[in-house]
Design the sequence.
């Protein structure tokens, strides 16, 4: 096993000074602490959501595995389940190519789960070295316990390979140390009525069809997050693009389970250039959405954690206002 390089640790860093894609916050009642992670795989901690201490390295990887010594880490999530803490993340080893599509080499990229007895780690590998097929680039895994009381990994199969990104599910073992059976597609990027492809459309999945207005649905599925409204309706936040605008929408399951069928809302749920979000309750019981802003500053994309106050009292999730802790 090996630990990743330890970055410089800082204290009292304001939220808007943190550069972070795909932010995820675990509000841990046992320690009364907010733990934030995301792409990069490092951890920040806070007592008030206003200022943060970090970042810290909290994971260990098996360097003898397919990940190698220096994998990229994307979209890390923290989940408390059955008395332990689990770290869901996407790992990429650019030294291993698994496919070539339209002349583009696709590296080994896969969702994986680590475990710890503590929310601040260290998080270490479990039994299964390969949760998902090696030939399939997957990303942005999250955890969901469905109505059958079994745990599932919900993730994206990347559009770079299939031409029409999917959100899929696969059952996990009861201790989350591996997967069972085969995956199943929940919905595809092309199901979205609001996303729009930018520029020329490459030949891809035959399931993607040009719309009557001449536009094509975007190919990207990104950052699924499952939730239930207070009325019990099952929804899934996910992110794509409207041309060059990063955008998040929501789908709802007619059956109330991961099996769907899933129906896409006609319009995005957040303003333009926000995406890859998740929901949590703060210590006052308010429902908050944390996601990252996507700002172009002279060709450099800046991503910063941002909060919205949300309402889930009915059968639909809706944003109420920007939220500044």
Sequence:
């Amino acid at each position: 096993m090996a630990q990743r390089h330890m970055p410089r640790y800082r204290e009292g860093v304001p939220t808007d000074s943190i550069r972070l894609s795909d932010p995820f916050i675990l509000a841990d009642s046992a320690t009364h602490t907010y733990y934030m992670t995301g792409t990069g795989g490092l951890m920040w901690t806070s007592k008030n959501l206003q200022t943060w201490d970090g970042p810290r390295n909290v994971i260990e990887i098996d360097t003898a595995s397919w990940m190698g010594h220096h994998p990229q880490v994307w979209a890390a999530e923290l989940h408390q389940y059955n008395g332990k803490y689990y770290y869901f993340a996407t790992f990429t080893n650019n030294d291993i190519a698994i496919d070539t599509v339209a002349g583009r080499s696709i590296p080994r990229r896969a969702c994986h789960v680590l475990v710890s007895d503590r929310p601040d780690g260290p998080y270490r590998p479990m039994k299964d070295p390969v949760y998902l097929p090696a030939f399939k680039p997957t990303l942005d895994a999250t955890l969901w316990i469905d109505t059958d009381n079994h745990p599932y990994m919900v993730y994206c199969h990347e559009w770079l390979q299939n031409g029409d990104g999917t959100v899929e599910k696969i059952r996990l073992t009861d201790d989350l140390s591996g997967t069972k059976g085969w995956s199943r597609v929940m919905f595809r990027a092309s199901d979205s009525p609001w996303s729009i492809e930018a520029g020329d459309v490459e030949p891809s999945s035959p399931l993607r069809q040009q719309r009557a207005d001449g536009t094509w649905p975007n190919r990207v599925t990104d950052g699924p997050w499952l939730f239930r409204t207070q009325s019990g309706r099952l929804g899934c936040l996910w992110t794509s693009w409207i041309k060059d605008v990063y955008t998040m929408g929501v789908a709802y399951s007619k059956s109330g389970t991961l099996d769907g069928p899933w129906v896409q809302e006609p319009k995005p749920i957040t303003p333009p250039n926000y995406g890859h979000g998740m929901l949590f309750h703060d210590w006052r019981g308010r429902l908050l959405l944390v996601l990252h802003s996507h700002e172009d500053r002279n060709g450099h994309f800046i991503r910063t954690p941002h909060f919205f106050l949300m309402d889930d009292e009915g059968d639909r999730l809706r944003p109420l206002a920007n939220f500044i802790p």
